[in-house]
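Researcher: Good morning. I'm working through a list of sequences from a screen, and I'd like to move beyond sequence-only analysis. For each chain I'm collecting a predicted structure so we can compare shapes side by side. This is the next one on the list. No need for commentary yet; just the structure.
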Amino acid sequence: MEKEIHWRKKFLRKLGVIFIPTLIFWIMRFLWLSYRKRYHFIDEPIEGQCIAVTWHGELFISPQVYRKLRKDQPTSAIISQHFNGELIAKTLGLFKIKGLRGSSKRGAKSVLISAIKAIKNGETIMITPDGPRGPKKSMSDGAVALALRSKLPIMVVNYQPNAYWQLKSWDGFLIPKPFSKIDIYHKIIQLDGMEREEAKKHLQAEMNRDSL
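Model: Good morning. Structure tokens for this chain:
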């Protein structure tokens, strides 16, 4: 009986990985087109590589903002190894953002090595500093470590919708309602010359400044 339940769960997960990301992608695109968007460029968009960051709870909108501003930039995203991470990786793949699988708890060293190699190959790295399990809007070492090592600027995307659903998940995941107004904030952060802990506090403060 236990083997049957395990097999069924495994089968359903495989089906989910095939169909759910495509469904999520088209929902994201449909809602995106319905929104009334206002951009606030605190800093002008830059050309070339960067470390792109957003809070985990803002992933419904941030990848679409990123791709609007950086249509052709080769990009990989650091994504956790658990099942939800697989769904996120497949969904981001539809935005032409490759997945680097790992997290702060599982595969951290190997995924950071992969991220460094991707940077050397001219790619931007996308990362949620509070992923994959929080706490909400906490600041892990990954984004700051990569920025300090590579000397790349950090691109921050936040947004504030006037009407939204908020899931009862650890990250308070936001889904703006159809036809809502969204204020989108873009800024560039430079961490040159900072120590790691100082850089983490600075980046966290800047990311929270325009976030709900």
